[in-house]
## 1
Amino acid sequence: MSKVKLDEIDHQILDMLIENTRIPYTDIAKKLLISAGTVHVRVKKMEDADLIKGSSLTLDYEKLGYSFIAYVGIFLEKTHMTKFVLERLSDIPYVTVAHITTGKFNIFCKIRARDTTHAKNIIFKIDDIDGVSRTETMIAMEESINDKKRLMHTIFREL
């Protein structure tokens, strides 16, 4: 897989889009002193190269009543059950992220819940999936770092 060649203008465009995916191209163009057409062409180039894949919306889950976060490590009875278990996990909307992992767990996932009782019910649903032998849960006390821009800037410096 070949790397996408990016210049400083591309970096600045990505920086602004990570900060606000809904920023108009005209606003980006004004800040960078280039035309909106140039921004459009560059973003399209990055989309065509699959560097940019869609855009996302950040919700304030606390305001929605879902501030409880837990991480659940899943032990499988047999590793060949991984795909089946992942399909069942995707049926549970409160499981927001799942990774196949090495080490202690076969699968590691993040759940969002209203409170501890709701989280317990979600974890029990996970435990009930055929192929899951047991789970281990860690409660997130606070999300201290969630910064996509720091990684992006590091990657750009390494290029």
Note: Strands lie at 68-76, 95-100, 107-113, 132-140.
## 2
Amino acid sequence: MQVIKKIGVGSAAKVYGLTLGFLGIVIGVFYSLIFSFIASFTNEEIPMIGAGLGIFMLILIPIVYGVIGFVIGALGAWVYNFVARKFGGLEIELSEPTSLPTE
């Protein structure tokens, strides 16, 4: 068994930030499509407001999700490191590396 004693706060923050940023892109596309679809059925004189809001969401959501992911990742790593220092780290079992065929 191997024990994870410490997680790099900066590393975890980057990974969480990028992961949630990419998730934000998917969600932003979804919102963009919904707002554009709704805007096409409105009787407004300027239906582009809904489409503009969709494009705004496509830009804003990934940024907000990325920032939130960065903060939560850093906080989560910091909390893990604190708990692991007091009570011990997470025990994991790693498999032995397999040899790759050489050419």
Note: The chain has a mean pLDDT of 86.
